[in-house]
TrEMBL record:
It comes from the Bacteria. Pfam families: Hemerythrin (PF01814). It comes from Amycolatopsis roodepoortensis. This is Hemerythrin superfamily protein. Residues 14-127 form the Hemerythrin-like domain. InterPro entries: Hemerythrin-like (IPR012312).
Length: 184
């Protein structure tokens, strides 16, 4: 696994749990930029946490928020497209042989750009409506479901390059990635 500990909550308000992961992603991106940090550990932790997070959102959170009319089809699809773009950037980072090259630094910045864009939009267009349009009980139930799926994915080594390749291939097959995303 990784030297970096990934928190594994089992319950809570889904909005708070997702926000906690967003702050974890930001910290891991800072570590990836820091030449004195455990970049390999940060890369492995970010890969696992990001894949588990996004897959659990797409399986449990986005569909439930649509059923509750908190988000519409466009917002769900846009979130999934941004996950796919971030996963492609993550795969490019995982394919870097070392952590002390310009290629690695460039891949970190491409991932950071995609991830920070998605975090900003998701917090405004998906999480805000979840706060205001969905009851606390539903958010708690969603938090338990999301955490359960996320933790199960972490147990499956979802951050491995093989797993990430499968996630990216699935996104390509379903049309979530456009041809300009393949310019790695």
């Amino acid at each position: 696994m990784t030297a970096v500990t990934i928190p594994r909550p089992v319950a809570g308000d889904v909005v708070d749990l997702i926000l906690d992961d967003h702050r974890l992603f930001e910290q891991l991106l800072r570590d990836l930029r820091d030449a004195t940090a455990d970049r390999e550990g940060a890369r492995a932790a970010l890969s696992a946490a990001l894949i588990a997070h996004g897959e659990a959102e797409e399986q449990d959170v986005y569909p439930a928020l649509r059923r509750k009319d908190a988000i519409d089809e466009h917002e769900q699809e846009h979130g999934e497209e941004e996950h796919a773009e971030g996963n492609q950037a993550l795969l490019n980072l995982l394919e870097c042989k070392g952590t002390d090259t310009q290629k690695f630094d460039d891949a970190v910045e491409k991932l950071a750009e995609a991830l920070m864009h998605h975090i900003g939009e998701e917090e405004q267009t998906i999480l805000n409506p979840a706060r205001t349009e969905v009851s606390e009980k539903v958010r708690q139930d969603l938090g338990t479901a999301w955490a359960s799926r996320r933790n199960a994915l972490l147990d499956q080594d979802c951050g491995s390059i093989e797993f990430v390749k499968k996630v990216v291939a699935r996104a390509e097959k379903s049309g979530l990635l456009s041809s300009e995303d393949d310019d790695s």
